[in-house]
TrEMBL record:
Biological process terms in GO annotation: ATP export
Pfam family, one: Ca_hom_mod
InterPro entries per UniProt: CALHM
Protein name listed in UniProt: Calcium homeostasis modulator 1
Transmembrane segments: 21-37, 49-70, 183-202
Length: 350
């Protein structure tokens, strides 16, 4: 389990490597699915073309959509596209970069499926067997006196070994169509490789500053979302722990008052344990305040301009609290000012 946990943490920290691994697994899965798939041509003029072309087109579309589903950046892209502008403007170049990156990875598995299908040639043979001129393969007496309907039925049975009587003509026609299918497969691979080469070669010709800018901010958006989710989880965990501790403290306090058994040592230990959880609350201690923080994060994210407050040590914490509170829609942080009361206790030796 430790090895799997370490591998999962590595993949989480390296999002790009993780997505490349997913694309490679999908490409291998597409090739494995095709080899395990039982090809059964209907050998009927009405359905041969639909079955052959459907096998060539439908699975790649499914793999393409599956690539979008498995890519975590799709939700990031949709959120960035639909969010209100607020204090942070949108950059269309970042959205285009993220969309192109997702699309490129999603096209790997469909390209593998189309290549394997064309190299095998079965779907191509099933789809285009009815378009053959069988007289070119010899034995013209086989189709002599046949009507066009009977000839199409005969040609539709070429992909099926047990339905076509003359095996020599069937083998010759099958080899002819498979050669055309393999040629199309090699042309498809050549075009895909040439397109990838052009993308790699042309990219340095453009301004690298714009590319680095879009790449940087696309990574920033992804990392910011992850850190915000982690912070929300930590706050929710601390909020729940403090809430439960306060509940049990109230119950235990009532029971102690009833039984008249004070226990000051346990109270001190509980206070020490709560300090870390209190710090993680970041001053947000009410449900309505947390709802406002989450709503403001969606509607008006903070501007990407960090400022350093030059204040003295005494007022530093107070000013930072007011600044953070004003950014999140509050005044003076997330809590209201509470009037402090001073108590004086006098001890007498009498």
């Amino acid at each position: 389990m430790d090895k799997f946990r370490m591998m999962f943490q590595f993949l989480q920290s390296n999002q790009e490597s993780f997505m490349n691994g997913i694309c490679g697994i999908m490409a291998l899965a597409s090739a494995q699915m095709y080899s395990a798939f039982e090809f059964s041509c209907p050998c009927m003029p009405e359905y041969n073309y639909s079955y052959g072309i459907g096998l060539l087109v439908v699975p790649p579309i499914w793999f393409f959509l599956l690539g979008f589903v498995l890519n975590n950046n799709v939700s990031v892209l949709a959120e960035e596209w639909k969010r209100p502008i607020g204090r942070r403007s949108k950059d269309p170049s970042i959205l285009r970069y993220m969309f192109c990156s997702i699309t490129q990875r999603s096209l790997i598995a469909p390209a593998v499926w189309v290549s394997v299908t064309l190299m095998d040639g079965k779907s191509f043979l099933c789809a285009f067997s009815i378009n053959l001129d069988i007289e070119k393969f010899g034995n013209q007496s086989l189709v002599k006196g046949m009507s066009e309907t009977e000839k199409m039925k005969l040609l539709a049975r070429i992909p099926c070994k047990d339905l076509f009587e003359n095996q020599e003509i069937r083998v010759a026609a099958s080899r002819y169509i498979k050669c055309i299918s393999q040629a199309c497969g090699w042309m498809f691979l050549l075009m895909m490789t040439f397109a990838a080469f052009l993308i790699r070669a042309i990219r340095p010709c453009f301004t690298q500053a714009a590319f680095l800018k879009t790449k940087y901010w696309s990574h920033y958006i992804d990392i910011e979302r992850k850190l915000f989710d982690e912070t929300c989880k930590e706050h929710a965990k601390s909020f729940a722990k403090v809430c439960i501790h306060q509940y049990f403290e109230n119950i235990s306090g009532e029971m102690r008052n009833f039984h008249h058994h004070p226990n000051y040592d346990s109270d001190n230990e509980d206070e020490d344990k709560k300090k870390s959880d209190e710090e993680k609350l970041l001053g947000i201690r009410a449900q309505d305040d947390m709802n406002k923080v989450l709503w403001n994060w969606h509607t008006c994210k903070p501007a990407l301009a960090l400022k350093k407050d030059h204040t003295d040590d005494e007022n530093n914490g107070r000013l930072n609290g007011e600044a953070n509170g004003s950014l999140n829609g509050f005044v003076k942080g997330h809590t209201h000012d509470v009037e402090k009361k001073e108590w004086a206790v006098y001890y007498s030796k009498v």
